[in-house]
Each structure stands twice: as C-alpha cells, then as structure tokens.
Amino acid sequence: MDTELVTLQIDGKSVSVPAGTTVLAAAEKAGVEIPNLCFLKGLAPYGACGVCVVEAEGCPKLLRACATQVREGMVVNSKGERALKARKLAFELLMGDHDGDCLGPCKIECPAHTDCQKYVGEIAEGRFSDAAATVMETFPLPASIGRVCPHPCERKCRRGKVESPISIAALKAFAADETRRRGEAAPAPAVDEPALAGKRVTIVGGGPAGLTCAYQLARRGAKVKVVDQMPEMGGMLRYGIPEYRLPKAVLKAETDLIAAMGVEFVNNFKIGRDASLADLRGDCDALVVANGAWRSSPMRIPGEDSEGVLGGIDFLREKPRLDGRTVAVVGGGNTAMDACRTAVRLGAKAVYVVYRRTRAEMPAEEVEIVEAEEEGVSFMFLRNPAEVAVAGGRVAGLKLQVMELGEPDEKGRRRPVPVEGKFEDLELDVVIMAIGQKNDPTGFEPLVATERGTIAADRAYRAAFKDEAPGLAPVFACGDAVNRGAGIAIQAIAQAKETAESIAAHFAGRAFEGGLGVISARDPERIDFSAYEKKPRESAAVRPAAERRADFGEVSKGLTAEQAMAEASRCLKCGCHDYQDCKLIRYAKELKTDVTRLRGEYHPAELETKLVSIERNQRKCIACNLCVRVCEEKAKKGLIGLVGRGFTTVIRPEFRDPSAVADCAECRMCVDACPTGALRLLAK
Length: 684
Prior knowledge:
Elements: E1 5-10, E2 13-18, H1 23-29, E3 53-56, E4 63-64, E5 75-77, H2 81-96, H3 105-109, H4 116-124, H5 128-136, H6 142-148, H7 152-155, H8 168-181, E6 200-204, H9 208-219, E7 223-227, H10 236-239, H11 248-260, E8 264-266, H12 277-281, E9 286-289, E10 295-296, E11 309-311, H13 312-318, E12 326-330, H14 334-345, E13 350-355, H15 366-374, E14 378-381, E15 383-391, E16 394-408, E17 414-427, E18 430-433, E19 437-438, E20 462-463, E21 475-477, H16 489-508, H17 545-548, H18 561-568, H19 583-590, E22 607-608, E23 614-617, H20 626-634, E24 640-643, E25 650-653, H21 658-666, H22 669-673, E26 679-681
Parallel strand pairs: 1-5, 6-7, 6-9, 7-8, 9-21, 11-18, 12-13, 12-18, 13-14
Antiparallel strand pairs: 1-2, 3-4, 3-5, 10-19, 15-16, 16-17, 20-21, 22-23, 23-26, 24-25
Helix pairs in contact: 4-5, 4-8, 4-18, 5-8, 6-8, 8-18, 9-16, 13-14
C-alpha cells in the first residue's frame, strides 16, 4: 500500500513528506534548518528546549517543530517575528544558566584571537610543530611576535589566580624557534575561498599588518604584491625593535616564508615618488593601505627643534653612535625602554629616562624596566620636560618640571600635575623623544582622514578616496595609520587578519561579520582555585647585564624544551573542548543572543566523574535530557537520570552494579548526543 504524502510549505519552500512526519523532519528535507537542542533522530520527540518553535498560518499558537506532525496545505514560517522572539528568549534563558567558557580568556583577550590554549596544550604534549602551525593559522610571525608582544593574553590568564600567568608569549617564540630549527616551518594550509582566486591585491606597507594581510590573502588564493618604502620588509619589527630583542635573522626567516608562498615584495618603493595611490588602485582588484606610523610625536616645548633632539623611532632606525655622551629618553613605554637600552649599547656615558608619572604607572613591561636598570639606565620619575636648553644651536640640557600625582584620569591612572614653581636642570648632549608616534600623510592625502589625521576606515576596514568614483577597485586600510592610530603589533595584526576576511567577503558578495560574536564566559570570581597545586612560572635564562650592554646580541636565551613543556602543563584549560561543534553557541550567535540579560542564580554545579570514562560538567548542562534518553532508549542501560525537583533538578549517573561501570566505559552515545560540551570523553 502506498504511503500517504502530505504537501506543505516551509519558509516558502514546498515539500511532500509521509503523513505522520514532524515539521522538523519536513524542514530538513526542504533544506531549512530549524534550531533544535533536545531532538535526536531515533528518539521520541521531547520538546523540552523550546528553541524549535515555528509559526503556522491560521494557528494562533507557536508550535514545537520537533513534536508537531505535518498536515496537508500547512504553511510554516520558522523565521517569523513571534517565533524568533520566543526562540531568542529561550536561548537567553538557557545561556543565563550556562556557566561555561566557550573560549579561554587568553584567546578572548588576544587582539588577534590567537588560539593560545590550543598551542599551549600542544607544547605540553611535546607537539612543537603543531603548536607553531596553530599560531600560523592566525598570523605568519610567531617567532618575532613571541619575542616582542606585551602579551595582553597573560593579563587575563586564570593561572594568575593560582600563582602566576602562563608564559604564553615565550611559549609561542619557543614553538616557532624549535620548528624552524627542525626545518619544519611552513605556512598554514590554504583556505578554500573561490571568490579570491586570482584576484590581484596590492598592499602598501610591509610591517606586521601588511605582512599578515598578504599572508592571509595568499592562503585564500589571491595574487598579492606588497610595496614598502624601506630596503627590507618587516616595518617597525625590523626598524623599530632593537636587535637584542628581535634578531633580524629571525624576522627574515619569517618574511622569507611569506615570499615563498608567492607574495611579491617590492622594496624602496615610496608613494608619491614611484607611484601614486591612484596608480596602484588602477592596477589591482583591491588596494590595502597599511603604511604604519613612522613619525615621532613632538613634545611641543621650546628648543625641541635643536640639533641633538631625536625622535624615538628615528633614533631606533638610524642608531647613531653616542660615545661619551649623556642622553635623556623622554617617555615611559616600551619604545622608551628600547631607546634607552639602545643608547647604552651605542656608547652613551650616562642614560636617563624622564617620565612624568611614577614607576607604578609606566606602561612599559616590567622586565624591560628591570633589565634597563641592570644595564645602568637611571630613572627620573615625576619629571616632565618644560624646555630644551640650547647652546650654539645644540642641546645642552633639559629644564624639568617637577610633577606630583593628582586625581585619576579616564583610564584610572592618577593624573600628573605640575608642582608650581618647582623645576630642575639636567645637563645633556642628546634628547630622545619616545612619547608616541603617528602616521606620515605624505602621499596619502587622497584618502579620507579622521580628526586625528589618521586614515578613516569603517568596521569592515573599508577606506575611501576624497574624490571617490564608482567602478574603481575597493580600498581597505588597517594597522597603525588607521582610526585611533598606533598601537601594539598584535593589534595591527588583528586588524590585518580581519581586513583579509573583509576582502574575501567583498568578492564573495557576503556581509563581513568580524570579531568573536556571542560567547559564554565564566566569572573568575565564581571559580575556586584553591585545589590547584602551585607551580612556579618558568623563565628563560638571560645574558648577564655587563655582557649584554656591550653588544646587540639577543638578551633572552629562550625556554628549553623541558621548561616549555613544564610551563605549558600549568595551563588550566579554561576554554570548552567542544566549542567548534557546540549547537548551543552556534544558534546563540545566529540569534545574537544577549547571554547575560537573564543571568541570575545558577543550577547546582559539579564536575561529575562517576561515569568513569566520561567527564560530566554540570555547569554546562541545559537539561535537554538527550543523555538520559539516549542511555535509556538507544544504549538500553538507563544509567543516567534526573535527580531533584524544580530549579534544583540535575542529571546524575546511578551505577547499581560493577557491570554497569564496564558498560559505560565502552559506550560514548551520550557524549555524541550532548549539544553543549557538558560531556567529555576522558583519555584512557
């Protein structure tokens, strides 16, 4: 006897299915995905999660697609306003009780969202090349950035709640160095992006932003050319970071790998001299401007135009000999530390750092300050240059305004204020201004600028010519020359990676999303860290100060393999193991769910290990009951059930005899069914 067919419409698509079919199954046949969490083929409909609700023409109520059977002529709308509103509310309720980390705080805090937890875990297992490859998924300069990054990731590392953060940046450098030493360094695999295949992209600027953008576009099949004004690629990594922190050979090996991918490098190429932006734009399918910030910010005080006053970036690039001279470096950031330590190596008799706040407010890394002191640099805190003393057209000294700390500023740091009438004089031969840097607009005047004088770019990193015309190649911009201006290298890299994604989206005709989107994150104040054994942070050996201050050889000797594995093993593994396959967060992202709006008291939470071969994290459970039903209906064991009543209800295992434990060890059906990562198979 022929099966009776029922024809209906779902989201405008007509589909015929056997009578008795659910709306959810009919939608699947029609190629329409209706979000669901508690449904699994082969199990009876349950309808607990409430996220598969749909609207049906002529029906005043919302229907649960997993439990509603089709009827002839039915017209279903899975994306109606009422359905979406109810579905979003269901996800807000679920996420409000979901006390789990989608990603490790380290990955979230990294501007480029490098998968720190993954590569740290790979190093702990001795898989050094895999760790380097993980970093290379995000950017092509792991050895270089591992040496110079101020590692914002470490500020959020929860290991710091136990004793001290993981040495994430040093581990990155170690993995890259070890991989290169073994001859295994390679770019990340190609990304399938047909819309970019063969597209010609020209990038202005060969610094960390331009190189990262080139690398990511080349991975996607684009034909990329990078033009740069300097003799070699690397930008500020090459010309602004001293050799003792980042050896040029290390950077060269990484830029050579990008060139080996087919990226064309053109050096000594200056915009306005060798070609205009318009010329470049007319000879490509997309233009990217990543020209960096190559001008030192002025102090705006009398005498600063005198001979002997140098910009911090200019000084680091040119490295003039300073034999027997007395030098003052003005500033408190890492550029100031690079400048003062370079001055020592260039023969200065005495080097002072002049900073208007105290040491506690210095933005420079502590290790840079300590090593500068070890190398003989003197620090003058609560002092601010008021005037450059000049004799015969040259610097003779600095008149310093004595400062004191007042009320906190918008960033929470106490604002330095002058002590009225109190000054000091400092005799000097050279003044180095390391108080910031900005972009050089020469040749880039056709681009629309911000009030700061930087290049204006939108959220998709699109920039525009002032006299824009239709039909021309799109223009993108990223890095230190854009919007808010100069920042740390990993911020420029983050923008470059997203710029490449935006270019791919443009040619594919899709919207650019960017960022991490919706994620769940635990409140560290709710976590008990007392059970973790305290283990000391591993530190790389450094050369003695008396030896290293005499040359530009690398200061750090890097972590050994034993140190790296020991350090990586301290990781608390905060991020979820199932993030990539988690249905809960995927749907929450699609609906742009506010994961905190309905957050309140959480269900009872524990880390259940009675399942022997499976770890069950009650904090991530959404009580969809799939594990209970799979164990009962498919595995035919019934080892898991609901315990308690009302809000305190939880799901727990119950082992009645030893054979049940053995059965559980051989079965993983509940793990495969879980939609949230609440269940994890333990290693044997």
